[in-house]
Amino acid sequence: MRFLAGCGRGRGGGTAVRRGFWLRFAEVILRPLLLLFTKRTWLGYENVPATGPAIFVANHTSLADPLVIAHFLYDRPREMRVLVKSSLFSVPLVGTVLRSSGQIPVYRKTRNAGEALQTAAARIRAGEAPLIYPEGTVTRDPDLWPMQGKTGAARLFLDTGAPVIPIVQWGAHALHDYRNGKIRLRPRTPVTVSAGPPVDLSAYEGAPPSGAVLKEITDVIMRRLRDDLAEVRGEPAPTGPLYDPEAAQGLAQ
């Protein structure tokens, strides 16, 4: 069943969110910059619960898009917890803000790699709504469509049963283009963020977390992100399989 993206605009009238000192400090610095450099279109606030457990999933086109999505959720308002690569926690000041605001470190390719999902699941059960980038990194699709995803979001769904809410953004790549590393901070760069109704995963409720099931759920999530992004971009989504960077690299060799 295909859900259509919501179309609400502006502040969502959610409940007040308590923010610690370092998060407020980051807001004081970053929000004015985002207001200056972006012309924002916020869609689908009716699909972002003000409280209660949820799993936010988002497409990833740029190193700038976490800030854009954070701004979107800030305006809802909804507290944002993101699964972030652990190396950022070692960056001066950035690490302080991440730790004090409760962001979740991801230790890639280590024995502690699973801790992030365990922490996220515990947060969900406590009524929070962590955000995960299923692709695990910025998309390698040449046209910035969502590529094949990792199974983290699928595992969280099977573990908690929380609704998986897709958030797509378009325009952050104009601020930072990952493909060439260029940063362009031009005033009022158009950016759009749209939250859709929960992904329909009813067919998988109570299913065992087998490799096949996890892959199917992940594909459903990624295709939904691709379809919702097509609506925001105003162009048809690619047909066929999701972009596979490993296969593409093999063909290039």
Automatic annotation (TrEMBL):
Residues 231-253 are annotated as: Disordered. One of its GO terms (cellular component) is plasma membrane. Pfam families: Acyltransferase (PF01553). Keywords: Acyltransferase, Transferase. The keyword Cell cycle does not apply. It comes from the Bacteria. Residues 54-172 form the Phospholipid/glycerol acyltransferase domain. The keyword Plastid does not apply. SMART domains: PlsC. InterPro entries: Plipid/glycerol_acylTrfase. GO terms for molecular function: 1-acylglycerol-3-phosphate O-acyltransferase activity. GO terms for biological process: phosphatidic acid biosynthetic process. This is 1-acyl-sn-glycerol-3-phosphate acyltransferase. It comes from Cryptosporangium phraense.
